[in-house]
Amino acid sequence: MNKFVKALITTVLCVTTLVAAGCGETKNAEKKIDTSATIKIGVTPGPHAEIMENVKKLAAKQGLKIELMEFSDYVTPNTALAQGELWGNCFQHKPFLDATLKKEPKFDLVSAFPTALFPIGIYSKKIKPGEKIPDGATIAIPNDPSNGSRAILLLANAGLITVKNIKDIDTSLNDITSNPHNYKIVELEAAAIPRSLDDVTCAAINTNYALSAHLNPAKDAILRETADSFYVNVFVVRKATLKDPRLEQLRKIYQSKENAKFILTHFPGSVSLGWKE
Asked: Of the candidates 212, 223, 191, which has an alpha carbon nearest to the alpha carbon of residue 122?
């Protein structure tokens, strides 16, 4: 092989290497996060939406643009997030997310940071706060596993029923070991439960749906979770989003003194902070 051929081959190899490197740089550039883009966040109506509206205003002052999308159920927001239609969502507690991921293992979702605690409570149009739930009462609870378990544990913690393990967040109706008051516990869709109050003795209702139904958790609940509940809500994203610098910016805004003040004054006695100030 003469010197000319060797030089030609060397030149071709160098050009090929540069082109390949250039292609790699292009692909990396395509993956670069556009921090100026608007982020879409899914919420449910009520306190989640109202708190995020406040966060949106605070974020705008820092140049972070947020678009909120409301969902009327607990299933669609995670599906939309997994499919890339949302940047993040803010409506669920960690046990609900864990239950969702067991059912949908392909959902590449993770908890990013804690938000607030929305205590679930027992409400009634037939029983006043301070009165006992009568024997034989029909009690409606959410039909999704995590919130259904939450309602059952609320009754168990009040000593009205007993369960296999009072600290097991996967507790179901099958885990009730004693029902001395002969309660008839029926499962309904969480969003529909407030509308069922005329048809049942009482019902376990999530705070966001209670407030939407003009119920005051601090005054109207017969039973209510305490502040040490492990059902603190979380902000959820896809795993890849954990690398997005806007996530840390959003966390600081959500957990800021300004937003904490909004939560505590706007929902007095109804919503607690999910983080330590």
From this structure: 223
